[in-house]
Design a protein that fits this description.
The protein has two domains: 15-273, SGNH hydrolase (Rossmann fold); 292-447, Sandwich (Jelly Rolls). 27% of the residues lie in helices and 24% in strands. It has helices at residues 15-18, 47-55, 69-72, 76-87, 105-115, 137-154, 168-175, 181-193, 202-210, 248-265, 316-320, 412-415, 421-426; strands at residues 40-41, 60-67, 92-99, 123-127, 159-164, 197-199, 213-216, 234-237, 292-294, 301-302, 305-308, 328-331, 337-353, 359-364, 370-373, 383-390, 398-405, 436-447. The longest helix is centred in the N-terminal third of the chain and has 18 residues, at 137-154. The two termini are 40 Å apart. Residues 5-28 have low confidence and may be disordered.
């Protein structure tokens, strides 16, 4: 049962968008220690959800999936819930789909409360290794530790499993027996908090090395994907990132199934092992557990703004993203401004980019004004995104932020990938707008004043 369906981005979404807008740390990709590649590390296991699953009393068990487009696809997420339902037929398995394509843990930590925790899950799968591939280990620690601490503050009996998927740039590391940089960083947190982790890609990497799997190839003929020929090398994906549902995602499910046997053996299945997860001293004092989404108040907005109705009879754009963005505002006129003051360390905006996106003039404190297009090379369609304003800011200072819709717009034809330009040539009216869709302020800190 799926109570919270989210839209899946097109599979053509490439690594460029997955790894965009993430700050670099002091370490380079080559000097961060890589962890030994192991499919499953059980650590403290998942005692609370196992105890509930084993009761067989007809209870509802909620399983949340927080991740990117690999999780948003109707693949391992859907398959694993069905597998769990079959394994525990007396319980009622319910899915919480909190996956958004093209986003990483640095947005996930801000939306964890809205998209996951308020639905009271019993088990959370967290999948961000691919989308965090361009993030520094420091930023991964801040965001992922924030997710863990938010979760156990809300309910110390929620179990968490970190799961790692792979993309083509990670393949060589895995075949050399090492995790990627992002997964290695996440393993530090899993060690620290005693959480299990599962890497979905070890079998994939082994088959590719043996020549029985093609990591990136042409999609099989209609029907061939559903019934792969064992005599022919399996095609894992068509883009080097997103697995095909009946091949790559099936291998991901099989990794869960193998790992689940090990997780059930932790503590010899004794329910007495189900001790509440404690909030021990953090790995990083500057973790992002305080990350939150703040509504765009009347005091923040000035100029031409329109609140879009996300109800069934309302605005099409607002309806499309209503589950992920319950409130959507549209800046429609040049000069429309969002302005707020806050005391804290991180600020951003949870928004959309798309064909009719304009550009913003951004000011933070006394720093020079900068221009931020809400349009990029992939924008033949609208998608959820985030706009980073500042991080690592002085926590004791009151910061001032203003974002103003510019009368000028981005050079969309120049920005679009060459293969996307024909769409603009055929549909110029689709790209004519210069607007901005915004949903909430992303904040670590607090708004000050009457805002």
């Amino acid at each position: 049962m799926n109570l919270f369906p989210f839209r899946v981005l097109p599979l053509s979404l490439a690594l460029g968008i997955l790894w965009s807008s993430v700050p670099s740390g002091a370490q380079t990709p080559d000097d961060y220690p890589r962890r030994e590649a192991v499919e499953c590390r059980t650590r403290g296991g998942i005692p609370h959800v196992l105890a509930k699953l084993r009761k067989g009393d007809g209870s509802e068990i909620r399983v949340a999936y927080l991740g990117g487009s690999i999780t948003a696809a109707p693949g391992w997420r859907v398959k694993s819930l069905a597998w769990l339902q079959e394994r525990f037929p007396k319980q009622k398995l319910v899915e919480i789909n909190a996956a958004i394509g093209g986003t990483g843990s640095d947005l996930g930590v801000f939306r964890n409360e809205q998209d996951v925790l308020r639905h009271r899950p019993d088990l959370i799968f967290v999948e961000f290794a691919v989308n965090d591939g361009g993030a520094s280990p420091e930023r991964i620690h801040q965001a992922m530790e924030g997710i863990v601490r938010q979760t156990w503050t809300a309910n110390p009996e929620m179990d968490i499993i970190f799961v790692y998927t792979l993309s083509q740039p990670f393949l060589a590391d895995l075949q050399a027996g090492k995790f990627s940089r992002s997964a290695s960083a996440m393993e530090e947190l899993a060690d620290h908090y005693g959480m299990p982790s599962i890497h979905f890609g070890l079998e994939v990497a082994a088959r590719e090395k043996a020549g029985t799997l093609i990591f990136k190839g042409e999609k099989p003929a209609e029907g061939a994907e559903a019934k792969p020929d064992p005599k022919v090398a399996m095609v894992f994906s068509t883009d080097g990132v997103h697995p095909l549902v009946e091949t790559g995602h099936q291998l991901y499910l099989e990794a869960i199934a193998r790992s689940w046997e090990k997780l059930e053996a932790v503590g010899d299945g004794k329910e007495s092992a189900a001790v509440a997860h404690g909030l021990i001293a953090p790995l990083r004092p500057d973790h992002w557990a305080a990350a939150k989404l703040v509504p765009l108040s009347d005091a923040m907005r000035s100029g031409g703004w329109e609140k879009l109705d996300g109800s069934e009879s309302g605005d099409l754009m607002a309806k499309r993203f209503a589950r992920q963005m319950p409130e959507m505002w549209k800046a429609t006129e040049p000069g429309a401004t969002l302005k707020f003051r806050f005391k804290g360390t991180v600020a951003g905006i949870y928004d959309l980019v798309g064909p009719d996106g304009g550009q913003l003039k951004i000011r933070l404190d006394d720093k020079p004004e900068r221009i931020a297009p809400r349009f990029d090379a992939y924008c033949t369609y609208h998608r959820l995104s985030k706009l980073d304003i500042g991080s690592g800011l002085d926590p004791d200072m009151v910061h001032e932020v203003s974002l103003t819709l510019d009368s000028a717009g981005p050079d969309k034809m120049k920005i679009l990938f060459e293969h996307n330009r024909p769409d603009m040539e055929k549909n110029p009216e689709k790209y004519a707008g210069k607007v901005w869709y915004a949903g909430a302020v992303m904040l670590i800190g607090d708004v000050v004043g009457d805002q």
